[in-house]
Amino acid sequence: MVKHQPLQVYERQLCLSCLTGIYGCRWKRYQRSHDDSSKWECSWFFLLCCSFLLLLVWSYFWLEILALCHIVLGQQLNLYWIHKIVVLAILLTTITGVVFIDDFWQDEWDIVIISLQFTGPFLHIGALAVVTALGWVIAGQVVRVERSSDLLLVLYLVPLFISSPCIMDRSKLGPRPTVIGRRGAPMLAPEHTIMSFSKALQQKVTALEADVTISLDGVPFLMRDRTLRRTTNVDKLFPARQDHDASFFNWTEIRSLNAGLWFLRDDPYWTVQYMSEKDRNRTANQTVCSLAELLRLAARTNRSVIFSLRRPPLQHPHHQLWVSDALKVIQRSSILPEQVMWTPDWYRKKVRAAVPLLQQTSDEKLPVAELKERGISTLTLHYSQARAQDIRQFSGSNVSINVYPVNEPWLYSLMWCSGVQSVSSDAPHILKKVPNPVWIMSADEYGLIWITSDLISVAIVIGIFIFQKCDTQWKMSGMRSYNPEQIMLSAVVHRPSRDVNLMKEKLIFSEINNGVGSTDELSGYTGNGLDTYSRDDICTSRNETLMTT
């Protein structure tokens, strides 16, 4: 036992060298340590475990590739049971994650359907290209199963069911939708501040949109959230009241708050790094804006204003006076009434009677007759409610459509092709750079692309199918020209032995019984190590073999 101790120690040291060398490049003995690992190294171990899990998931992606290879080679699919369990676990985890995300993103799923309207034609061509690239697999499956593949047929006919507003004649394309600065230009400056609205005006917006709340002393001011916590420093000046409703602060308290430092701190749109030093200093000194200030700015620049009015809570002293408080500010300002778009549905008749020239707008999708009865000339809709057929119906009845929020060029292009008159955007500086729809094509052009891509795909798949069909028939015909003894003999022809000689004789007798009687016909086997035999030689050899046995 003592004899083997040095060998065991050597093996242990070699194992340690491999472990520490591969993991931490500590190949030398003096570099190793039995001390506790540092927190830094433990954190890297955690990241290593996370990476391992990701690689494990990634490895199951390669199982899909292996499955496709099985199909190509005509092998039976037989996934190992442990892999099946892991695949099911990954699937259930993914489904759980999607359900969990759905709780936070429920209102945004509509964007997926809308994006399909914009990308549908290109997704069809892309899917057709992928399936055509997999034509070898599909054709092989058709040859083996001897039935047609419905997948290609479905893809070829998909364009019959694709409908996109951007598939239209260019001559029918309406004018470019005007852009309304939603809360100003909140990607360039703090929302609902004079600086934000000034930035929006620099981007050539035609109107300014805001959310209005009534203060404790009846002053309408601009605030989107229920509280002041997100966009002001209320936690510093009024820490005990930071969770209170914004309407329970008087105007003096609201005016004392800073409304710009949060933008520099949080950088919500990753744009602070592009701001000049002058703009940063200006941002740091922004205050909460009142409705009167916004109206003065709009009047001075000849722009329209659209705003939504939030009613104060029941305990608020202006709970019943909120509409009249807003109307007083509008009437006292220098802005023209027709430049103000009134959205609240509360007391609409009284509002129309008090200020008849106000543009009546609504954010509720109502029948055209009811909109006319209420005197509503503009409908403000979320992009998920703006369907092309509804837009055409409202536009045909002289009801303008304003869609919000539209921040991406592709969505702006889709709304443009749908025929909307205006959009409310947080990114007017981006939409300013969209002079034309991202893409537009006529039905004839799309039909030509559809038919051409289908014909190319059909030609490729048929060519692959014919090749595989002929290849399969050639292989089958080759198999019929061999009997089992020939196949076995070809496998062991280079291993001369007594058994091989017996197989040679069986093969020769088999050929004779099948009608091969001449020496010339049997001479074909000489290439595989067989000599040319006559009938007498065969019988003599057979007898000698039996006697030896």
UniProtKB/TrEMBL annotation:
It is a multi-pass membrane protein. Belongs to the glycerophosphoryl diester phosphodiesterase family. One of its GO terms (biological process) is lipid metabolic process. Keywords: Cytoplasm, Glycoprotein, Hydrolase, Membrane, Transmembrane, Transmembrane helix. This is Glycerophosphodiester phosphodiesterase domain-containing protein 5-like. It holds the Pfam family GDPD. SUPFAM superfamilies: PLC-like phosphodiesterases (SSF51695). GO terms for molecular function: glycerophosphodiester phosphodiesterase activity. It comes from the Eukaryota. It comes from Sinocyclocheilus rhinocerous. One of its GO terms (cellular component) is plasma membrane. It is found in: Cytoplasm; Endomembrane system. Residues 177-435 form the GP-PDE domain. The chain crosses the membrane at residues 44-69, 81-101, 121-139, 151-168, 447-467. Gene3D superfamilies: Phosphatidylinositol (PI) phosphodiesterase (3.20.20.190).
